[in-house]
Amino acid sequence: MSFGRVQSESDERVTNNVMRHEYRVLTEPEKIAMKVLKDKGLDLLEEIDSIVPTGRECSLAKTKVEEAIMWAVKGLTA
User: Fold this and answer.
1) Does pTM surpass 0.90?
2) How far is CA 59 from CA 38, 45, 62, 69, 70, in A?
């Protein structure tokens, strides 16, 4: 099964998500907030990559950032 890419703030985001089959339509402020959260998460991931030596601790830190953003977005979009 192959899907194209869909922006996370798009109303079409259910297209490539096999787990959540229904979404509520987000308000424009919610879409902006989701993008802000994801952008800040990406900034932190890049900062970690630039200053923390590669290894288990770096990997765990990045995983925890990804998890935090996932839960924040899930809470926002629930």
Assistant:
1) no
2) 18, 10, 5, 16, 16
